[in-house]
Batch of 3 targets.
Target 1
Amino acid sequence: MGCFLARGVPIVPVVTRREYLNAVHRAFDSLARERRGTAYDDALVDLVGGRPVRATCVFSSLLERRPDDPTLHRMLGMSYFRAGNARLAARHLEIALVLLKRATTPDISLLCSLRIELEASVVRLALMAAYERLGHRAGVLRCLVAQGRPLAWDLHS
């Protein structure tokens, strides 16, 4: 991070393009490498292997121990969606967005902020699919509009 120095302008911190791209890369990498234990890994295998009901059971039990984990809500929502229950999928994806929004504060690091925004984008994409299956056109449109805005903006405006 550097500072922008211009005549008559106060000193302003600036993130260079390279620093920003580095942070984006690290945010993507942290999403992919995040480890939550063998039960979580087994549930992912079940979900990818076409056993969403089994994955739903595991994610639900993990969520009982960590109810404020937006990633677990996201994965449970995706499992419900794959199992054919769009209503419960939408509910857990909405909870994930609320939890991610609460995590955004002005004092968090750029890396943390990018990670939260990336996860929110994934949640919104899954939520759009659930809303579409439910025939909830207004919800799909809200998610589309929200994709271009930072998470700190209200999703339901």
Target 2
Amino acid sequence: MKTMMMMLALAFSFVSGCSGAGDTAQRVFADMSANMREMSAILTSVTDEASARAALPKIDAVRAKMRDCARRARGVPRSDAATEQALNAAMLAVQRDVMPAIAAAKQRLAAQPELMAIIAPALQGMENDL
């Protein structure tokens, strides 16, 4: 959970503190939040060896979308104070709603080493996606 919170905070710092043109901070943050929710659903869905193996391409796809969000965020103009405040509130909501589900899924999977062995390589280095 600590890693995922760090990723979300890093994503927010990209979205709120970069200059450039293109996407809005809100759009990139919404996409990143959706990616985090999707990752939560994927990890929650892993209950046996078959579902763990089925989760691998899904994890890879979400990670690719996270990397794309990070790339897009680098081009987002710096937000005004009101937008930053709104994004802070949204980030707290994601931390409150999504992060506990991800942490619970990871804790459950950690108690099942045969499943964790299957998905751990797909999760390795995820903090670098942002």
Target 3
Amino acid sequence: MTADGGGEAGLDERQRIVRSAWRELPRGDRNLLEAIGADQWQVCERPLGMVADEMLRSADCGSLPSSEIARANTAVALWVVDLRVVLINEGHDAFGGLDGASVVYNLSRVAWHEWGHALSLDRAEHGDIAAGESYLGMLPEGFAKLVRRAGYRPNEYTHEIVAEVYSMLIGRRRVGQTGRPPWLPEEIYELVRRVVGWNQ
């Protein structure tokens, strides 16, 4: 498979990759996601702000502000809380030029990230969210720069950190590595364990 395989067959293959990524989650994590209704996803070929806005209007949930549509249009993936669905833009530049194995890995990582995001939005406490800037300061500089450069708001830092660390932990689990990575501060590891129920 290559990243440029578009059309229905390409979408079907990417749906299969995301389904496989779902099955790789620990059973307890899937149970938590199912409990909050975060077990649905859709792989799309268009900018996600437009897709999310159309879906919300179709469900009589109103339209997104134009600024939110524009912001979401740049995203690789979104957790749409009101619809309880993860949207993934398989046509995003992030997947451009990748070989088959790289598409599988990166698409899986994106899905894991969004499921971590869904759990964080549902389960993180007010104090966790308020401590986002502090958590960001604990991270290795390269990781912290990625979050800052992505333009997240301070009240989104904790959710983004939890989601990204969670996707990394699932990726490590895929290759048989468990426990806290040596570069990850204990306090953030415990945050992720508490928010997403991670016990690997």
